[in-house]
Protein: Metal-dependent phosphohydrolase
Organism: Streptomyces caeruleatus
Amino acid sequence: MEATPRATPARVRGYVVCVTLGALFCLHTLPTTPTPWWAPALLAALYAGGAWLSGSFYPVLLAGAFLLPPSAAALVAVPGALIAPVAGRPDLLRRLWRAAQLVIAVWVAARVHWALGEHDAVQASDFPYALAPAGAAVLAFCLVLTALDGGILKLADRVPARRAWRGLFLRSLAPISVHGLAGLMMAVLWRSPYGPVAALLVLLPMCVSWWVFAQYHRERAAHQATIRALVQAVDIKDGYTRGHSERVGQATMMIARELGMADERVEVLRFAGILHDVGKLGVPTRLLRKDGPLTPEERRVIELHPEYGHEMVRGISFLGEARAAVLHHHERLDGSGYPYGLAGSQIPESARVVAVADAFDAMTSNRSYSRARPVPVALRELEKCAGSHFDSRMVTALVRAVDQQGWHPAVTADETSVPPPRPSVSSTPGAHR
């Protein structure tokens, strides 16, 4: 959805209205549903508290689907979905969407569960039998959520239909299955001789784990915001290379994946690529934007940016080996680089990855001092310098990755006006500001 109510497309508002009408249909038999009022009320209160803390608390919703008739189970989602915080505006439309989506998903899950479980599949004395209808209900719940999510993604962001639903179900199935198992445990204990009090005990470790998980995601979001702010500051200061940092991050990630690195390390190296030029914030703007030849003294000042960058990020613990890449990405295998003239294996592996990605984007982007080279030409140039300037493994990995995936940078430089090449800059790949 868009940032403001006026910007929300009519097609999105219409879709939300249709889903809301579907949710109202799911609730229309509620007045005639034979169920004690306290059961859905207690579950609704539990879900509202969990949703307020973590944004979603599916075990309680699925426990309701296992314990209550469909309309009563669907009602459990409404209070929590309407009061929980939302990200972005229009908040009312987002809350309405979330409530309607969950009502339909829980109603379908409860219908499937009751149909397969002969209306009462959850019994403490017959736990194995409860697994099959509960599993089917969880599957139905996941299918409905992903179907509706794909629809809103297609309409709000104009994502092509073949991509809107791709992977949504498989990515959601594992976590929702875990939620379903916890919900089944709640339901079985609820129906045991110990009653709802025993079921509530299941929530205590779940609440702790959800809180930890939410803290992790909040911390991760803060990390991303910090990195975005630093990169935007560099892009504003050095307009000639706008978008360069994001593209280097993308190329770094391609190399790391081609080398078979673990996902966690790939993410750290992506940060390294994005932040490699953050030290330019310490370089005078007049030097970064100078159109004429650089004097030897001016070049020495610019070559301090890796050390400036390292000082800026050295206290950010989550960056790990990315900090070394920021400091050493201009080192060369033959010792001709800067700032310390390291050679061969003295150069950290992360810096060797970023060096190749950095040089590749420098050659394939228009700069104040050079025009962009075609991707095949840039790759051949890197191969010529492999073993002397760049690590051969990294160059080979980039060539393979580009051959398989192509080079489609998510961020492109502003190429509307490119000055003629500056003759005073070396033609060596990576010899750029």
Q: What stands out?
A: The chain has two domains: 5-218, 238-405.
